Amino acid sequence: MWTADSRWNEIMSNENITKEEIAAIFPKVAETMADALGCDVEKVKLEASLIGDLGAESIDFLDIIFRLERAFKVKIPRGKIVEEARGALSEAEFENGGVVSEAGVTRLKSFLSEVPAERFKTPLKVAEIPKLFTTETFCKMVIRQQRSMAAAGGAKPA
Q1: CA atoms of 84 and 78, how far apart (whole Å)
Q2: Looking at the domain assignment, is residue 110 inside a domain?
Q3: pTM for the complete prediction?
Q4: Which of 60, 91, 107, 157 is 20 to 30 Å from 82 at the Cα level?
Q5: What whole-number distance in Å separates Cα of residue 155 and Cα of residue 52?
Q6: 20-75: per-residue pLDDT in tens?
């Protein structure tokens, strides 16, 4: 049975985002991130941790998202990555007292499949989730938003 939730989960799934789709938008994402962070575009690799490798701070995430929205003509609601990462888990199932639950970590590892397993420390605090984000994380976010807009009858993916 088709429901809005099942359609949304299908659109938002990582499983069907191809390496080709990521490769197609990576140059523009890398250039956007380099501009926002004031670093050389050559430093912005797909696997680069925004915080650990590129020196991003929390305020930089807002700037990066704003720039990606303009560059790709998509709307990325604040907190979208963490909301999508949580998936079908309720907030209580995902975290307790600011610490990500075992089920939450399992869900994050699946959602952030581009992040090496050794980067997932336990216990993992919710506030530390952005430390996991890579350039590829943002590529996938843009692709999911493009698909969401296309599914809603908006702009087609760039």
Answers
A1: 11
A2: no
A3: 0.84
A4: 157
A5: 34
A6: 999 999 999 999 999 999 999 999 999 999 999 999 998 999 999 999 999 999 99
- Residue that wins the pLDDT comparison between 7 and 82: 82
Q: For a pLDDT cut of 90, what percent of the chain falls above it?
A: 73
How many independent structural domains does the chain possess? 1
Q: What is the rounded average pLDDT for all residues in the chain?
A: 87
> Is the separation of the CB atoms in 107 and 117 below 8 Å?
no
Quote the radius of gyration of the chain (alpha carbons, Å): 15
Tell me, yes or no, whether 138 lies in a domain: yes
Phi-psi region of 79 (alpha: psi -120 to 50; beta: other; left: phi over 0): left
CA–CA distance, 67 with 63 (Å, rounded to integer): 6
Locate tokens 């990606």: which residue?
A: 68
Residue 121 lies in a domain: no
Residue 93 belongs to a domain: no
Give the domain CATH number at 24: 1.10.1200.10
Residue 134: band (very low, low, confident or very high) from pLDDT cuts 50, 70, 90? very high
The partner residues of 125 in beta bridges, in order of sequence, read 99
Torsions phi, psi for 125 (to 5 deg): -80, 145
Q: Find the domain containing 45 and state its range.
A: 9-86+131-151
